[in-house]
């Protein structure tokens, strides 16, 4: 693989890392390596352990998250999160925010129901209660901004609190950085042990692939090793084509995010003034926004159905703008408002996005008023 001058910035890393060595006539992109096994005598024996296409992607992800050489690609974001939860010993305790990606809620509930682990739910904005809930816990899962409530956690303060109160006995801290991406924040710098991604979202960026990743802190090679072992033994591996697609998507991560974030700011300012919108949740950066609309769940559903440009679909982080009412999912916790619509702002022209959203909001609220 190519190596960059140490000081290369993120926008350069996404373009330049994970490429073959420069040599006259060499390809500029890594190939998709379709193989299940390797000729004996080399570093890799079998393709459930590693694959050269994953390694190129892992090089980029590790560098972006400030964990060079510490990234591992997984079959999906949930595959990566399951590997992290797999670090918890039998009967151990996991501390998690009350609002978190609903697949995580489902996974933890499932494992708690079988007695595999215990779960404590916390308000992620209340640092003291997060720290206090970690008494005897094996794992603290964080997600900030949280999905879909956009709550923020003061992670450096949580890490200070954990160190002061528990010292070396503190739980492993894992952080889901899917919403912000490493261009928005780098949680390993705050001292968390593991960063998790659903690369399905912004990193891949085109709604055409599922893939996940875990990046360990440079001083936690032990955790990287255990997560790697989990991946190998549980077979939670990505396909080489999927890894290649994510690597291809990452090349434009910075320009996609710049555009989407700038448009999100414009839309947030207008949504705050919109007569059909009660409340806007926006963390102040990134391209994810949640709104609560007049007229309850029915109106929110009508808004989602009335868009013609915005895609009414779950998921986020694609070039196309997407929206959905989160409570339509049975796994979504009931403290998420029924009328909350989550918006993932894409890279289309912002005036087109606004025109479509505005007409859908007016339509949805009119329909719910007519129904009264
Ligand atoms: C989508 C998502 C996941 C799950 O990732 P998949 O790739 O769909 O398995 C986890 N965390 C967050 C924040 C997500 O948005």
TrEMBL record:
Its cofactor is pyridoxal 5'-phosphate. Signal peptide: none annotated. The modification N6-(pyridoxal phosphate)lysine is found at residue 201. It catalyses: L-methionine + H2O = methanethiol + 2-oxobutanoate + NH4(+); L-homocysteine + H2O = 2-oxobutanoate + hydrogen sulfide + NH4(+) + H(+). Belongs to the trans-sulfuration enzymes family. This is homocysteine desulfhydrase. GO terms for molecular function: cystathionine gamma-lyase activity; cystathionine gamma-synthase activity; homocysteine desulfhydrase activity; methionine gamma-lyase activity; pyridoxal phosphate binding. InterPro entries: Cys/Met-Metab_PyrdxlP-dep_enz, Cys_met_metab_PP, PyrdxlP-dep_Trfase, PyrdxlP-dep_Trfase_major, PyrdxlP-dep_Trfase_small. Its EC number is 4.4.1.2. It is an enzyme of class 4 (lyase). GO terms for cellular component: cytoplasm. GO terms for biological process: cysteine biosynthetic process via cystathionine; transsulfuration. Pfam families: Cys_Met_Meta_PP. Keywords: Pyridoxal phosphate.
